[in-house]
Amino acid sequence: MFSSRTDWTLTPNRLAIHLDERRRQGLSILDLTESNPTRCGFDFDQGAILDALREPRSLVYEPEPRGLVPARAAVAGYYAERGAQVDPRQIFLTTSTSEAYSYVFRLLADPGDAILAPCPSYPLFDFLTRLNDVELVHYPLVIPTTNDLPRRHPLPGDQGWQIDLEAIEKTLSESSRRVRAILAVHPNNPTGSFVRPAELDFLLDLCHRHQLALITDEVFGDYGFAEKVFHAASHAGASRALTFTLSGLSKISALPQMKLAWLVANGPPDDLAAALDRLEVIADTYLSVSAPLQHALPRLLELRRHVQPQILARLRQNLAWLDRRLAGEPPVTRLPSEGGWYAILLVPSIKTDEDWAVELLTRDGVMVHPGHFYDFASEGHLVVSLLPTPEIFQAGMQKILARIGREW
Ligand SMILES: Cc1ncc(COP(=O)(O)O)c(C=O)c1O
Q1: CB atoms < 10 A from the CB of 52, how many?
Q2: Which ligand 1 atom is at minimum distance from the Cα of 249?
Q3: Strand 381-385 to strand 369-370: parallel, antiparallel, or no bridges (unpaired)?
């Protein structure tokens, strides 16, 4: 009766079963996977948020496939601040970045075509590609070490995460499927690595030569840990190849409940014009963003100035505490990261990541994500959110370190 694309294994994993059980028993949980910003104790300007939704113009229906002009102008203004000049005509509003992904996949790929995406990365890519009948092919993000063979595309400052550009080239030349796009996450979840300028250059060249599109997910783009991350500039202004830059209010203004996101198309003039015409038909088929949200967008976007400093302060505080705490704690280290909402702990692989996560939950009441949620290539990775309050974060981390210290 059902499509093969929905033929998922729906049995809950061990961690989910234990989490349910713990909740049923009313036992406390120190949730270090919490990444819902509306539940982490930030001060939201509640009056301004609710006022933004009370716009009388919302009482009139004005169907506009790309979204209402003032809303798109506000998004263009946001990109201007991030160093990218885009015209509101290049912008399409959607209800989520997930919907924006669907538009772009539908625009670019036929059933069975492939999209290259980083690994480890956002677990939803598996579902988004499958639901749109495209094949997800991973390319690795790696932390090169001095032991590695000389790389053909060495990047400056050989530390931290890098895109394995050689692996992408190899896949393009060897894949039996038609590859339609390369997806980059800037900065990536959970590695926190921004795409470096040399990597962007390489990807744009590759896309241009192979007639592919570059899709960049910038939902965490405003959350660099350093005061100034020089390579955090948006890709939305890149026009050497066809590009689609995705973002939205869920992270920028920490308002995931508002369900408002967008894509920005760019590229060589002829490709861009054709893409915009086709996207217009896709968007016109759904007309999915409600009028109150479109009218509220300029003000909700502006509210990022109130919430982002709080979130950045939280991320930096938790990270600084973690680094102080991990100094001299040999079995556990933290992988390098430049931004985003997560930290990756490197833990002894004396047991699987899932075993660590289950044990931490059942014995210590601490919830973490095992690395395999993000498709890490090896065991030894636990992912924690940096959003929880310092009290919860520190209490949870102390228990993690005590448990691992005891068993190591
Ligand atoms: C890389 C990445 N893209 C997109 C999203 C979600 O965005 P939205 O709420 O707009 O669908 C997330 C959420 O965590 C994410 O990690």
Answers
A1: 21
A2: 10
A3: antiparallel
**Cα-to-chain-centroid distance, residue 202:** 21
Say if CB 400 and CB 360 are below 8 A apart. yes
| Length of the chain as a residue count | 408
Name the band, by pLDDT with cuts 50, 70 and 90, for residue 228. confident
Closest approach atom of ligand 1 to CA 99? 11
**Ligand 1 mean position to 125 CA, how many Å?**
10
On the 0-12 / 13-18 / 19+ scale of CB atoms within 10 A, 196 is buried
**Alpha-carbon distance 100 to 18, whole Å?**
34
Residue 98 CA: which ligand 1 atom is closest?
A: 11
**DSSP letters along 356-397, please?**
HHHHHHHHH-EE-EEGGGGT-SSS-EEEEES-S-HHHHHHHH
Q: How far is the CA of 121 from the centre of ligand 1 (A)?
A: 11
What are the φ and ψ backbone dihedral angles of 2, each rounded to 5 degrees? Answer: -115, 160
Distance 153 CA to ligand 1 centre (A): 30
Probe residue for ligand 1, chosen from 126, 183, 189, 373 as the CB with the greatest number of ligand atoms within 8 Å:
189
Query: What distance, in Å, lies between the first and last C-alpha atoms of the chain?
Result: 50
Say how many Å lie between the CA of residue 97 and the centre of ligand 1: 6
Distance from residue 212's CA to the centre of ligand 1 (Å):
23
Ligand 1 nearest-atom number relative to CA 250: 9
pTM over 0.85: yes
For the stretch 273-301, pLDDT in tens is 999 999 999 999 999 999 999 999 999 99
Render pLDDT for 103-150 as a digit per residue (tens, 0 to 9): 999 999 999 999 999 999 999 999 999 999 999 999 999 998 755 555
Q: Per-residue pLDDT tens for 165-222?
A: 999 999 999 988 999 999 999 999 999 999 999 999 999 999 999 999 999 999 999 9
What confidence tens digit (pLDDT) does each residue in 19-48 have?
999 999 999 999 999 999 999 999 999 999
Q: Tell me how far CA of residue 311 lies from CA of 5, 56, 91, 303, 397, in angstroms.
A: 37, 32, 27, 13, 19
Ligand 1 site residues (CB inside 6 A) read: 96-98, 122, 185, 189, 217, 219, 248, 250, 256, 261
